[in-house]
Amino acid sequence: MLPTEKFSGGSIQNLLLVFSIIGILLFIATILRLKVNFLRKAFVPVSLIAGIIGLILGPGHPAPHPGPLHGLPDCGGRGLRLYPRHPAPLLIACAASAAASVFIFLYLSPRIFKKNWFEVGITRFGASTGVAATGLMLLRTVDPDMKTDVAKIYALNAPFSSPFTGGGLVTSAYPVLIASFGAVQCGAAFMGLALLCVLGCRLVGCWNSHPQFEQRGNYTPPDDQ
Questions:
Q1: Which of 142, 168, 189, 201 could disulfide-pair with 163, CB 3.0 to 4.6 Å?
Q2: Domain boundaries, the chain
Q3: How far is Cα of residue 124 from the mean position of the Cα atoms in its chain?
Q4: What are the DSSP E strand ranges found in the chain?
Q5: Separation CA 96–CA 79 (nearest Å)
Q6: What's the rounded Cα separation, in Å, for the pair 114 and 117?
Q7: 166, exposed or middle or buried, with CB in 10 Å at 0-12, 13-18, 19+?
């Protein structure tokens, strides 16, 4: 028997119910991704599909809301209740994020990384759409023997980028900047900064004008050659 005592504002049963619903959404998203070829070709992750399904369904499911956690404000609960009221901005943001991730992987990666662009790009793609472990898992899928130096490059880069992006200072500043200056203004500013970075790569010579769209890092010639 599971205990019924309170656990962070809710009960163990509530926690298990929430995890069960998440598991069901991930299972449905996995089946949907297997059946729809476009989702696999576009490298849309299962977690993103499950999140979109959850947004479409809204909070009408029987999952209880556990309430505030140790006196913290109930920001997450209010955010969940805003989903059915404002679905368009959230769906647009999800679609734009997915499109940007695919664009960076398929267009920018082969033009910025002249060597082993596919391995570097797929690692970055997994980290941007999930977590660092997702990116490294995708790297081990395309380069199981670690013939490339992509894992070392990612490890050396992490101490310099993680404190700022991917949950660091810059990521934490997004809500404050948006509340202070507006979503459109912040979006335009970050878009302009990204374009400046691309322009800087072209100016300093870190741009491959003739990329080769092939995965070469884990290629092994056949024995008969």
A1: 168
A2: 10-66+79-85, 91-161, 164-207
A3: 9
A4: 6-7, 10-11
A5: 20
A6: 6
A7: middle
